[in-house]
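This entry is listed as follows:

___
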Amino acid sequence: MKNMLKGKTVFLRALDTQDVDLILNWENNPANWRVSGTKVPFSRQSIVDYIASAQDIFAVRQVRLVVCLNESEEAIGTIDLFDYDPVHQHAGVGVLIVEKQREKGVGLEVLDLISDYALNAIGIRNLECNILSNNEASIGLFKKAGFNEVGCKKKWFNNFGEWLDQYNYQKELIK
């Protein structure tokens, strides 16, 4: 299972207290708030508390892993499994890759790694995500990773006065 979280160019690891500043920076970046639903900045203590408590998917129904480059071990993003439902064996998935590492195939590799981990380590049968209609890069990424559009919420998200649709995508890990 150890190799399950290591791909060709990246590996996934658990959050650690060494990541507080990194996560604080990413979570408090207003450019990321649009997709995360954040309305106010996080405090340093709230991130410390989050790292300490939100890493057991069976207890809190969520886990966040840090995406790191194999060669340098540099942290370049995160991937979350959230809203885990052990009875129905599904969870949401969200990914953040730093801008300088986008469009290099990293996102696809990360989604493949988390899909394998979700199925084989946790027993998740289905992953789902919600993507705003103007986020063409994420739509392309998730489609390439095998996610299929299963629904659309019309005019669901207020983007500074422009109402955007929100698409729901799903990947069946066991067919």
